[in-house]
Amino acid sequence: MSQNEWEEQERIYGCWLCNCPDIGNRQLNLLTEICGGSEAAYFADLETWGKALSPKQVERLKAHTAGWRPKEEYQRMLDRGIRLVTIGDAAYPKRLKEIPDAPYGLFYLGKLPYEDAPAVAVIGARECSEYGRYVAGQLGAALGRKGILLISGMARGVDGISQKAALDAGGYSAGVLGCGVDICYPKQNKELYERLLDCGAVMSTYPVGTPAYARNFPPRNRIVSGLADAVVVIEARAKSGTLITVDMALEQGREVYVVPGRVTDRLSDGCNRLIKQGAAVLLDLEEFLEEIGELRERKGGFQDRDGQGKIDGDKGKWTERTRGGEGKTAKRDKALAEEETKRDVTSGESFELGGRMPKKLSCEMDAVYQILDFTPKSAEEIRRGLPPAYQNGQITAWLMGLMVEGLVIQVSPGHFCLKG
């Protein structure tokens, strides 16, 4: 039997193990280690199973095995385009293998993440603000253009917006689901789900057909952070599921970056608290992309998307953080950073709103547009910010014109902001 044939046999019986309910990763790994592989575990006796499993789990596995036809079930899965990679596979993501309690098996549709490129997990609020939508879109697009993998949970809000932007920019993104990979959740992201199948992947540790139970999502979050080199948080409330992912990322030794928000904005309470605890602050896209390149370089390097070779890993030192710690913030060589900025393909990208160049607008509409940002303003506040020549004009009409152009939204009666 060739190596490829042996690995395929192991996947067949690995699929049997992954579909057995209520047996954790550590016990599955221990069972296959004791038996010498998943196929050997299938043909082992109950006494051998008992060396890794509790009596109840042995009975559960026995009942599961009685109704399972390994080759037929595995082929049925393959016929749907679904693949399985187990922790002993050469194709198993190396980043994921490093985390505590690494999943025994990973089901996926599409293409597994590349090992030689940096990866960033982008997470945040489902009900995000226009500011959150804007930052998620800008960050996703920048990662996509730079060839940095974007990992997220395909959820509403920040997750889905950033992933769509990365795909629009020609990049790769993987969505980690809290259900089987054959189920699109949430249904509103059906288009994104289908695009990920073509230009990335959807992945899950849960067997095919598993519904999107609420209890599945916290464990799912550790896979999101585990597949990445760093995690970026864009908007999170003080008590948010996003912060569960941050806790897991820190336990896994991942870098955590946070986009800051206003102290009066409840969607930013969690982010601002993380900054207080020592998380890195994401203020500039160019600097962030450079740091991610350096981080990956320290782990072995990668080929940059623009074909210029490996990113230089000696342009700055790193901040080492622990949960709730102050950390050590290193100084960056300004001259080298400025030189890198000039030749970087992402030159000019930032979160600053100054110098916006929208489509051709009338002088009056442009004047209104230039004083708006992502903080809702009343018509009276807008009037006070206009040049004297426009202060007595038809502000409502100009605002309606900007809304028709898709540049502005009305967030509440009489209050307007830029559309993300």
Question: Would you write up a description of this structure?
Answer:
With 420 residues, this protein is α/β, with parallel strands linked by helices. It folds into 3 domains: 3-79; 119-343, Rossmann fold; 363-418, Winged helix-like DNA-binding domain superfamily/Winged helix DNA-binding domain (Arc Repressor Mutant, subunit A). It contains 18 helices and 12 strands. It has helices at residues 3-18, 25-35, 38-42, 46-49, 55-66, 70-79, 94-97, 130-146, 158-168, 190-199, 217-226, 241-251, 269-276, 285-298, 334-343, 363-371, 379-385, 395-404, and strands at 83-86, 105-110, 119-124, 149-152, 173-176, 200-204, 230-234, 255-259, 280-281, 377-378, 408-412, 415-418. The strands form 2 sheets. The protein has a 9-stranded mixed β-sheet, sandwiched between helices. Strands 10-12-11 form a 3-stranded antiparallel β-sheet. α8 (130-146) links the parallel β3 and β4 (149-152). α1 (3-18) packs across α6 (70-79), α11 (217-226) packs across α12 (241-251) and α16 crosses α18 (395-404). The longest helix is centred in the N-terminal third of the chain and has 17 residues, at 130-146. The chain is elongated. It starts with a helix and ends with a strand.
How do you describe this structure in short?
The chain has 18 helices and twelve strands. The chain is α/β, with parallel strands linked by helices and 420 residues long.
What's the structural blueprint in terms of helices and strands?
Elements: H1 3-18, H2 25-35, H3 38-42, H4 46-49, H5 55-66, H6 70-79, E1 83-86, H7 94-97, E2 105-110, E3 119-124, H8 130-146, E4 149-152, H9 158-168, E5 173-176, H10 190-199, E6 200-204, H11 217-226, E7 230-234, H12 241-251, E8 255-259, H13 269-276, E9 280-281, H14 285-298, H15 334-343, H16 363-371, E10 377-378, H17 379-385, H18 395-404, E11 408-412, E12 415-418
Parallel strand pairs: 3-4, 3-7, 4-5, 5-6, 7-8, 8-9
Antiparallel strand pairs: 1-2, 2-6, 10-12, 11-12
Helix pairs in contact: 1-6, 8-9, 9-10, 11-12, 16-18
